[in-house]
Amino acid sequence: MVPESFSYWQRTSPLFSLSTDLPNVSDVAIIGGGLSGAATCYWLARAGVRAVLLERRALADGATGRNGGFVRAGTAGPYPEAMARLGPQTARAVMDITYENRALLRQVLQEEEISCDYREPGALQLALTEDQSKEQRQEVDLLQAEGFSAQWLERAQVQAMINTPLASEILGGCFLPEQGLLHSARLVQGLVHAALRHGATAYQAEASEIGRDGANVRLRTSQGNMVASKVIVAINAWTSTLLPELTPVIVPVLEQMQAYEAIDPIFSMALSVHMNTGEYMQQTPSGTLLIGGYGSVAPNAGGSRKACQHPRYKRLSRQ
Ligand SMILES: Cc1cc2nc3c(=O)[nH]c(=O)nc-3n(C[C@H](O)[C@H](O)[C@H](O)COP(=O)(O)OP(=O)(O)OC[C@H]3O[C@@H](n4cnc5c(N)ncnc54)[C@H](O)[C@@H]3O)c2cc1C
Q: A GO CC term (predicted)?
């Protein structure tokens, strides 16, 4: 039976059973079965390392199972901002790494025959105000000058790409061709299947303590103790449960992705807009509308859930 807590991505993936028969020795133990743990396990196994993956509940049970599925090559914020903050050389290096990462993703999906709805329909960021239009045009100019594909689209061009009447406040948008979308949990499952084929093993086990054991690392888990030469902690928001010394530098951020019932195709690209804190959407090949964003400091760190209670995206369409 599918657990109640499973996310949309998990529910729409095949069931993936993890053994609980944990060995007590390993070369490298990777804790966390999200994208970071799965990818690390895959690359280690591919390099011939005996890697053991530990996941406390199910693969993609954290942020990986609840994200927007955007595969974005580029800096996290607008490129001009990254250039100002990091300097032109570092910003360019970040861009290059993300493009290399995308090339590697394409290669691995093909080599390992991972089926995760990967496609490259491009990404469109809508502009709702004159300021946003100006910023996006500047970004397009800068990206083009640096040799990257980017295009400013007027409102009519945006409307031609979206199969619903747009609200009048949409002025245009910045289109980045080649940007991708995928099914996040199926990607993780595919990576773990591939890692297993390359000799890794994966278990359902919750790590509760990490300590030294001579030159090795000792792990206490829900399925017994394990000694490993090295341990990689890939548990994202739960990091401070195993490494409390990192608590002061971790700021929990609440971000949500909501899945709506399947509808006829409206748009195919990765769509984003800044209405609140930055919202983004994808329509999956089966028609489901996924809407994410509403980022704020998490309730357990003093923030509130308020932002996510307002589905402001409705204002984007006249219907
Ligand atoms: C709403 C939202 C939307 C996002 N959208 C995008 C997007 O469109 N594109 C993008 O690139 N990124 C996006 N992100 C960010 C991206 O999802 C994360 O950066 C990424 O999934 C982090 O992967 P991870 O493996 O580090 O962590 P997680 O996916 O959180 O995985 C951590 C895993 O560790 C396990 N775990 C925890 N404690 C233990 C323990 N003690 N023992 C064993 N296992 C344990 C958990 O069960 C979990 O499976 C989004 C994030 C959110 C929240």
A: cytoplasm
Return the residue matching tokens 């773990």.
192
Q: Based on the domain organization, do 175 and 272 belong to the same domain?
A: yes
pLDDT tens column, 156-178: 999 999 999 999 999 999 999 98
C-alpha span between 255 and 70 (Å, rounded): 14
Q: Which atom of ligand 1 is nearest to the CA of 282?
A: 8
Q: Are strands 207-213 and 216-221 parallel, antiparallel or unpaired?
A: antiparallel
Å from CA of 172 to ligand 1 middle: 32
Supply the CATH number for residue 175's domain.
3.30.9.10
Residues 246-284 have pLDDT tens digits of: 999 988 888 888 899 999 999 999 999 988 778 899 999
Q: 202 and 288 share a domain? A: no
- Identify which of 5, 10, 18, 56 to mutate to test ligand 1's pocket (most ligand atoms within 8 A of the CB): 56
Write the ipTM.
0.99
**Under 8 Å between Cβ of 27 and 49:** yes
CA distance 60 to 37: 10
The alpha carbon of 224 and the centre of ligand 1 are apart by a number of angstroms equal to 25
C-alpha 67 to ligand 1 mean position (Å): 8
| Residue recorded with tokens 């800068």 | 142
C-beta of 18 in contact with ligand 1 (< 6 A): no
